[in-house]
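Friendly challenge for the regulars: who can give me the structure tokens for this chain first? No prize, just bragging rights.
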Amino acid sequence: MQKKPTKPRQKKDFAPHISLEKAPPCHIAGCAHAGVYKAPKSRDQIGEYNWFCLEHIREHNAKWDYFSGMKADEIEDFISDSVTGHRPTWTREERMRFNTAMLHDKLYEFMTNEKPAKPAAAHIPAKMRKNLAILELEYPYTEKQLKSKYRALVKKHHPDMHKGDKEQEEKFKQITVAYKYLLSQEGMTPCP
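First reply, four minutes later:
Bragging rights claimed.
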């Protein structure tokens, strides 16, 4: 690819930033010309300007060094950060929030025109099924689900709430036994 030739600058390229009538006096003390060209006050005050006449803006621009006073590593950081416009960035992986298994299933369906076979349900022992039924849970369950369900059922069936009701007392015992069994199966820690 050939480099495009650059045109020499013309007078219109040096057009003033403000009309002569509205221009403040030149920022340089003793200059009688109008300040029609603006220049940032400093690196830290990019949005605030000093106004100069043509002669003094040329002098100012010839001496202006944005990076003066910065160390080499600060300049390197500025340059690498300027690639993204000095805005925060994230890696692609951090922004991806999708289920990869679902993605694989959809891709398989697209490529073969068939629904993927569902994996066989995990074999759950009868004792575990019974305890899950007592706690009104389904497999698989999380520790948080187990503990919150246990707390809710304990509040509902606690003997103090039912003043000597033997049926509620028996249900409370079953809930406690089922909870301890399920905790031991998953290696979880009991509720405080």
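The chain has two domains: 15-91, 126-186. DSSP finds eight helices and two strands in the chain. Your move, everyone else.
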